[in-house]
Design a protein that fits this description.
Chain lengths: 480, 480
């Protein structure tokens, strides 16, 4: 892997954020809202809280979420799914108010929100809140970025709206997870719309009652079913959720009314979309405990279940200067789920390669990374990778946890190398470092943005709180 | 009530349609689709069926649905809810491709769909499928009318797409009703989006697989919770559902993919949004049995529970030339639910008057009708109506069914008049006549469209199958 200049200014890392998020708050936590006051309590918090009340570690994690979003949005922008959506909606789009990351088209802010949402989710490489499997940024960043191009928004206000939007999505998601997800909902879309409304509503400076209505209008629009997985419909879901939240906030700004209790009422959101409702997840500790601080970022462009194997192979490669020729065979011990989900021995194309633990181990050794290009048609058919893949074996071992793996590599010279992984890089316990996150983002932007512009964009993202205009991010994300 | 010229050409009435719909089909009904083939079976029907295969009685009922829609859309167009929605979305709208019934603004077809959907539902006076409480037209006519302005669509094709869109919404609704509605969903929006996709997809001439995707993308967007009732959010739901269906069809036209089994899959639509799934309701008898033929239209602009009382009072008024001065008192025997829902004795404004059986009886006698103007602030405060309202009594009688009432009017000269209602006008058993429907529509358009233009529009709606361009309807619905 080539060395990269590391632009990150703060290096506290997200482990600090994790600790901050779980540390008992210095102020006593707010009491849970009385029944019937859930939507209003959340709205009151959203309207009243100021950027300086948000702990620095939370702001830092939101900055990392933003940076990761920029990478996956630019990286996903050439995808066919994005092009088809653009072709479908362009004839009906309004004035060219907002850009599309990685592309030159400009659309009205509502249309741009859809396209940016699709591109940032299409690689399945966006941020993940592991407790709920919500990928929050793909619904929430697009409307905020579009608004930042349409109205004057400082970087500080932009990041604050992002914190509040993500926090809202994760909290309403926790109130209904896992029943809601188990039933069939793509929670990224359903919770995402409500988070998008919260963030957009904050940028629009809604009153408390307008925010109640915005949350209600967004909660009325539950987009996304799990049956969409495997089709373009999947990345449509967060894109549409972002639009739903933005529309909700724009309507509420004009005093278009909704229920005062949409989240908690008997015929309201949580009771209708889930058999579980825990409203304390929404209202308890608002302002002192932030789920936003627990966001994670995938280092590898495939299902999280193979991440320990890739991590192990990359570590052995780096420690011993491994190449495919030096290797006689690779033996993996994995959790049984790994073979169940990713047991494909001879993947024929890029998509199939994401479901092959054999390919993942081989490509990590041969190419020293596991980004989108390592799960492409090209990589799946590369003779060197195919050859090594044939020398990989994997055995299911119930003693191995999902977060663990053991890789044993036997070299041609007879030596044996062994690597155990307890928690793969990118997990909550072993978060991606700022440096690794930045490398991931830079890699995603290669061949789409000029190198100097990509560096300038990464620097602007790290510095978002100091930007006079958050629109700078949108401008820099468009190829010069 | 003033006499109106009756423009209707065919006078078969919807009772004939009802009989046709329940008559055993001459051809054997299609077998229910095998599991896993529900979405595709529906799509195949939608793509393959031609206008001449639809029974005339079904086309007739769809024509009545269209006429009623035109009336409520024009009549609802000055409502504050419509103005606020327009103000919120206008800055982001695209080219002026489509009009808004009753108004002069022009928007892109997707934006126009939202506004026309809101205006046609805001009076709570649109069509009702009584088995499912779906108000189908408010989601389905707007996208079809917008497409008719954007592409060349004959009146015949337009009406056929409307038949198929309504049929789809009602069938998917029946598959999950009542559990889905009981859980809290505003079924008009959830089923409406799927119907809108079917109708729009037919006008866009989608292939079978594209239609499968359009249904899947629409089913991914479930808009509307019952908690919205009483706020502007309620009429937003069908408006947004129409947009969701139109977007789904436009995306599918570009080969934007979805699941092949979104309606029936385990993590698909019906299983996620309902505890009941009866897929035979979707696939059995397609092409031989039409739910569309069972659509009904409210004669009175208030909750259906007071319709028997209004019907009784109007009949007595007409039969005996009643005026308020001649009446000593009015005694009503009603189903207990009537007093529970509409027991407000002294309503202070128009909205409250819809929940007063006393006001309903009085205004029917004084003004001889019960349209939107009879449930206005003006009517609620009219001294003559207020005075008569004070002489109305109502007693709950468990022996009276919901569809029934008995009104006993004692005259100042001591005589007693009695009227029993078995099924109020507008029910499935006693459908609104073509003449009464036309009078309702003409009344709704008064003061919004010039009288001559309104007559021309009504004639065009009755004649829709013969129109060279369905866009004529949209043009005539805009004030000259």
């Amino acid at each position: 892997m080539q060395r990269r200049h590391f632009i990150g200014l703060a290096a506290t890392g997200s482990l600090a954020a994790l600790q901050a998020a779980e540390r008992p708050p210095s102020a006593p936590a707010a009491q849970p809202a009385p029944p019937g006051e859930v939507t209003r309590t959340l709205a009151r918090f959203l309207v009243a809280t100021t950027a300086d009340q948000v702990p620095p570690a939370v702001r830092k994690e939101a900055t990392r979420t933003l940076l990761n979003w920029i990478g996956v949005a630019v990286g996903g922008s050439p995808h066919e799914t994005v092009g088809l959506a653009l072709a479908a909606i362009a004839p009906f789009s309004g004035p060219p108010q907002a850009g599309i990351a990685g592309r030159r088209e400009r659309l009205d802010i509502v249309s741009a929100t859809l396209v940016n949402g699709i591109s940032s989710h299409v690689l399945d490489f966006d941020d993940t809140h592991l407790k709920t499997i919500i990928h929050a940024s793909s619904s929430i960043v697009p409307p905020l970025l579009a608004l930042a191009e349409y109205r004057t928004v400082s970087g500080r206000d932009f990041l604050h709206a992002l914190v509040l939007g993500v926090e809202t999505a994760l909290r309403v998601g926790k109130a209904i997870y896992p029943d809601h997800y188990d039933a069939g909902w793509h929670i990224t879309g359903t919770a995402g719309a409500i988070g998008a409304a919260a963030g957009a509503g904050k940028l629009l400076d809604l009153s408390e009652t307008q925010m109640v209505w915005a949350l209600g209008l967004a909660a009325s629009q539950s987009v996304g079913l799990r049956e969409s997985f495997g089709s373009m419909n999947k990345s449509f879901n967060p894109g549409r959720a972002g639009q739903n939240g933005l529309m909700a906030a724009l309507l509420a700004e004009k005093n278009f009314t909704s229920s005062e209790q949409m989240l908690e009422a008997k015929r309201g959101w949580a009771h209708t979309v889930s058999t579980k409702q825990d409203f304390r997840e929404i209202t308890a500790g608002l302002g002192s405990r932030y789920e936003t601080a627990l966001n994670t970022y995938k280092p590898f462009a495939c299902g999280i279940v193979i991440h320990p194997v890739i991590d192990a192979c990359l570590r052995l490669r780096a420690a011993h200067g491994l190449t495919a020729e030096k290797i006689s065979d690779i033996a993996l011990r994995v959790h049984p789920l790994v073979l169940e989900l990713t047991g494909k021995k001879t993947p024929q194309d890029g998509l199939q390669s994401k479901f092959s633990v054999y390919h993942a181990a081989a490509v990590a050794i041969v190419e020293g990374r596991a980004g989108p290009r390592q799960f492409s048609d090209r990589a799946a058919r590369d003779p060197g990778i195919v050859a090594l893949r044939g020398r990989v074996t994997a055995s299911a071992d119930p003693a191995i946890k999902e977060s663990q793996t053991e890789a044993v590599i036997t070299l041609a010279d007879g030596r044996t190398l062994r690597q155990f992984i307890e928690h793969a890089v990118g997990s909550t316990e072993n978060p991606l470092s700022d440096q690794a996150l930045e490398a991931k983002v830079a890699d995603l932007m290669q061949e789409i943005l000029p190198a100097a512009q990509a560096r300038e964009l990464i620097a602007a993202a790290w510095n978002v709180v100091a930007l006079p205009h958050a629109a700078t991010l949108a401008r820099l994300a468009v190829p010069a």
